[in-house]
Design a protein that fits this description.
Rossmann fold; globular; AB_hydrolase_1; alpha/beta; two-stranded antiparallel ribbon; Esterase_lipase; 6-stranded parallel beta sheet; AB_hydrolase_fold; Alpha/beta fold hydrolase; about 15% strand; 8 helices
């Protein structure tokens, strides 16, 4: 019996680009697995494009990328950083993925932030950039220089979608690997706590040398190894199920 084919859907974070996840994608490819590394709508151009991108456009792009990969692979594992982690959890539940890897995932904003952003973005289009939380010296994240407030309101909707998907992951027993930096100046510990509470089978690995953009930080190799290990375990589980 032939070994199942496998791949990873690799998802970047809010205001960032695929380059923030390139080391993870390279680790997946070097291990012989397929992958999709989509640039999400509204990203990689100018912040005004993100400001005009609705949440559903990002969700649709993630679903389409997952389906492209699933057409080529028997086993698919979504892998995401920050907002990409929320999207990985959502699509993993929607498509019944073999496993999910999340790196410093966001699942909720500070209460009231989304509502406030939707109320004032016309008067205050942007706030300070959120990119570049990296401990490794001389490492720069490719991302927008400001954060569009209108997009923050849409991010709040994306997080709500991800939170609503967590019970399905728990019910199916989907393996979830949480790679978390204890010092994270972008996403607080509340999102990880929520994930572990609602999806009890979540396995947590602490990234002690890295901050929020951990795939570009000191623990990049560890992230790649643990991601590849989860994919390999999902392939073995698929073999046993056949």
């Amino acid at each position: 019996m032939a070994e199942p084919t496998a791949g990873a859907l690799v998802l970047h974070g809010f205001t960032s680009t695929v380059e923030s996840m390139r080391p993870v994608a390279d680790a997946v490819a070097d291990a012989g697995y397929d992958l999709e590394l989509p640039l999400l709508p509204g990203h990689g151009t100018q912040w005004q494009d993100l400001a005009s991108t609705p949440a559903h456009a990002i969700l649709e792009a993630v679903s389409a990328a997952y389906d492209r990969l699933a057409a080529r692979c028997d086993v698919v594992v979504p892998v995401g950083l920050s907002m990409g982690g929320a999207l990985a959890l959502w699509v993993g539940a929607e498509r019944e993925a073999a496993g999910v890897v999340v790196i410093n995932p966001g699942l909720r904003l500070t209460p009231g932030t989304g509502l406030l952003a939707r109320a004032i973005w016309r008067f205050k289009p942007t706030i300070t950039a959120i990119a570049g939380d990296i401990a490794k010296p001389d490492t720069v994240e490719e991302a927008y220089p400001v954060t569009p407030l209108r997009a923050v309101g849409e991010l709040d909707r994306l997080f709500a979608k991800a939170r609503s998907a967590l019970p399905r992951l728990a019910e199916r027993g989907t393996p979830v690997l949480l790679l978390r930096s204890p010092i994270d100046n972008i996403v607080g510990s509340g999102s990880a706590t929520l994930l572990k509470r609602r999806v009890p089978q979540t396995h947590e690995v602490i990234l002690r040398r890295s901050r929020h953009v951990a795939p570009l930080d000191h623990d990049a190799d560890l992230i790649g190894r643990r991601t590849v290990q989860l994919i390999a375990a999902a392939v073995s589980e698929e073999m046993r199920a056949r």
